Structure formats: C-alpha cells, structure tokens
Amino acid sequence: MPARSSRRFLGPFLKEKTMSEQSPLDRARERMAAMREAGETPERLNPREKALANPNSRTLAVAAKCYDCVGGECADGGYRRAIRECPSQTCALKAFRPYQ
After folding, report:
1. What is the domain count for the chain?
2. Per-residue pLDDT for 86 more than 60?
3. What does the pLDDT look like over 35-45, one tens digit per residue?
C-alpha cells in the first residue's frame, strides 16, 4: 500500500493566507524577516525602556525594578537569568518577579 502524501492530507491548510487572514504573530514574523533581508537590525528595548514606553503596565514596572536591582545587562548570560536567580528573600516584589 503506498504511503499517503502529506500534501494531499494537509492540502486545505497549505494554501497561502492573505494579510488580513494572518495572525498578528505571523505578520510580525514577516516584518522581521523583511527587516533582516534589508540588513536592518530590530531595536531591542531593555525592561526599563519598555516600562517608560508603557507607564500603565504593572508587569513592566516590576520587570524594570528587578532589572535595576540586578544591575542591568549582565555579561554572563543576561539579566533574565540574574532576575530568575535573585537571592533576595525580603524583596516585596518577589511574588511578582518576572522570569521565574
């Protein structure tokens, strides 16, 4: 018995989607791919800059405070790992800490 072609089985799902049918994540991935092809590098914001851009976000405010507390960008693996491994037991934000 011949093996079924995956293309025939998945046929309706393989059609190209128009821009309005794509999810926001797919559209963002396409924009990022276009930027890479053009030789542009995307701007990366640190947690402090993200919190300043959106001052109404409690989550971003906590992330910015933790970022400041661990000393910002760390050379040995980044601030996310430093926040995750934070030794402070008395921090009032411990329960809300990002990257746990």
Report:
1. 1
2. yes
3. 889 988 877 78
